[in-house]
Amino acid sequence: MSDPARLSLQIHGEGDEAMVRCSGKLVAGVTETLVDETRPLIKSYRRVVLDLSDLTQMDSMGLGAIVRLLVSARSAGCSLELINLSKRVRELFGITHLLSAFEACGEQRHRLP
Known about the structure:
Blueprint: E1 7-14, E2 17-26, H1 31-44, E3 47-58, H2 60-76, E4 79-83, H3 87-95, E5 105-106
Parallel strand pairs: 2-3, 3-4, 4-5
Antiparallel strand pairs: 1-2
């Protein structure tokens, strides 16, 4: 079983879309894992979807990492989408007025197999 205090990622690419399923905590100290694993996908795919359904916690550093990825995606002509945001994560994006910056913040549109 994985350590819930750590961030783990499952990445699945198909066609022109990559799905990154995040599990655990996206907090200071582990945010570079998300950035380092997702940036190459932005260069290779037209659409990258972050599935946050198994994210148990996110702090301002985690929010900053996602915003950095959004900036990278926009400069590369890639669409970065968020799905399956928990109530707390959605509130964090709402408080910072960042929710509207993302293409889609849908509920469970698709999941990794």
